[in-house]
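7,8-dihydroneopterin aldolase
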Amino acid sequence: MTDGQITLTGIRAHANHGVLASERELGQTFSVDVSLDVDMDTVCDDLTHAVNYALVAQRVLDVLMGEPVNLIETLAGRIADAVLAISPRISSVQVTVHKPHAPVGVALDDVAVTCRKDAE
């Protein structure tokens, strides 16, 4: 086995996360980046011996579009937990949730929260 990394960037969905009633009602576009540290088999060319990143992307999307939360910190943690549960080959995950239209009262390009979790 080889230590490796899989990165998926820009998984997007319209979702209703946020503290304000308007965020819950109208929603907004969120974007998620995930980076997985994995035990990678670079010899066997068989998907059953790899982390299926299509499954990772779908799991991220499922959480992103799932039950609304107040804080993107909570959302990042839920996504990390869901990704870690996919395969024992995943030793850790880093999740960044982007909320470019966060209502913070000043002009900005993006608000992002990043969390990192290790498999237990």
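thats it. The first helix runs from residue 21 to 26. The chain has a mean pLDDT of 95. bye
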